[in-house]
Amino acid sequence: MDQSGTGKMMPKRYGEAGKEQYLAEYIRYRRLNGTKKSRPPRLKPLDTSKKSNADSDDKKQNTSKGDSTKTDDTAAKKREEERLKQEQEEKRRRDGDDGRNTNGDDKRREEDDGRKKEEDERRKREEDERRKREEDERRKREEDERRKREEDERKKKEADEKRKKDEDERRTWEKAEIINKEDEEKKRRESEERKRRRGEEKRLAEERNRREEERRRRDKERRRREEEDKRKLAREEEERKRKEAEDRRRKGEQRRKAEEERRREEEERRGRRQVDEAGKRKPQSQSASNGDGNNPGRDGDGVRSLDRNPKKTYSEKVTEVEQADDFQDFWKWIHNGKKDDFGNS
């Protein structure tokens, strides 16, 4: 038997499941009866056929304790019989009974014993009913607690499953969101890369076009400068030729004037000689200025003919033509307010 905190021997037949009930009954009994030293009321054995799952578990765990249940019952019966004997002895001492077996005393004792037995049975029945009610209440309470515990466990299990499901869904959504973000980031990078490549290609194309345009512009400028240089050289060449021609014309004019002056002086001298000779001989039939055989180098209008002196060179002939009066008149007509092919007036 186990030693409880009350100093009494607590029967083991109730196991761990009935320990708290036994102690509660003992405390209640002590409160009702003050400090009177008497054993607590004997509890009704538990109905093993209607024990809950928790009692079955307790019974499995306390198998060694259940072996001494019969010994506890025997000791309790002995204590109850000893208590009854002590009460009877105390009553006889109070009534003056000397212990002799008289008929009246025996009858009275029998009546007392009968009343006492009935009282004990009544108390026992009441105690059994009370214990039965308490046992029913305990079983009901344990059943309610078991059901509540099962309901709590079911709810906890459902909550755990729901939480696990929500956690799985959350993780799935997080993974999907991460994948979507990675896809969006990848698409964004690819789009930016395409834009950058297009921008680079456009910039390179613009650069090529700019260089090509610059090259065409330089070529055009170069051709323009070349044309300008050609025109400038042509103008310079024409100006040089014109100046040379003007110099030749001026020199020819000077030579012509000198020649005319010389010829006039010659003619004057010749006229004076002729006048002088005329006084000596008859005058000539033909004049020297008419271009006849007396002056074979001149034609009728005073212009030297190129064919009458075949010994002259071509340059001498050209110079002779440029110095002629008709060529000088033609040259003045050309340049008198009229422009030549090169824009020179």
From TrEMBL:
Residues 1-20, 31-326 are annotated as: Disordered. It comes from the Eukaryota. Residues 44-216, 224-280, 298-320 have a biased composition (Basic and acidic residues). Residues 31-42 have a biased composition (Basic residues). This is Titin-like 3. The gene is Ttn-L3.
